[in-house]
Amino acid sequence: MSDQAVENPVLDRYECRACGYVYEPNKGDEKNDILPGTPFAELPLTWRCPVCSAKKNAFTNIGPAGKASGFQENLGYGLGVNNLTPTQKSLLIFGALALGFLFFMSLYGLQ
C-alpha cells in the first residue's frame, strides 16, 4: 500500500489554475464567509475563487501544507534535497547566495 492511499485528503490544499490562489482548509475563506476547517469538497458549488472568481472546478489538489513537492517515487533521488519542503529549499538557495556574496565581498579585504 502506498503512502498516498493512507493520507487523508480532507486537509489538502487546492490551487486555482487561473491565478494561483491557494485554498487552505485550515484558514478558510473570510471573503466568502467560509469558516476555518472547511474541506474543499464541502465548499458550495456556487463558491468562487476570491481573487479571480474562477469556478470550483478550476482548482487542482496540491496536497497538504508542508509536504515535499514532487512525485512520491522521485523524492529519494538527488542529494537529499528532494525531501525538502519548498520553504526549506528557498532557505537553502538564498542562504547559499548570501554566503557567496559574503565571500565575494571579502575579496576586497585582500588589498
Summarize the structure.
Helix content is 23%, strand content 10%. It has helices at 3-6, 86-106, and strands spanning 13-16, 22-23, 59-63.
Verbal overview:
The protein has 111 residues and is an alpha+beta fold. It has a three-stranded antiparallel sheet with strand order 2-1-3, with no helix packed on it. The chain is elongated. The N and C termini lie far apart (63 Å).
Strand order of the largest sheet: 2-1-3
| Poorly predicted spans | 1-6
Overall average pLDDT: 81
Shape label: elongated
Highlighted features:
three-stranded antiparallel sheet, elongated, 111 residues, 2 helices
Layout: helices, strands, pairs:
Elements (H helix, E strand, L loop, with lengths): L2 H4 L6 E4 L5 E2 L35 E5 L22 H21 L5
Antiparallel strand pairs: 1-2, 1-3
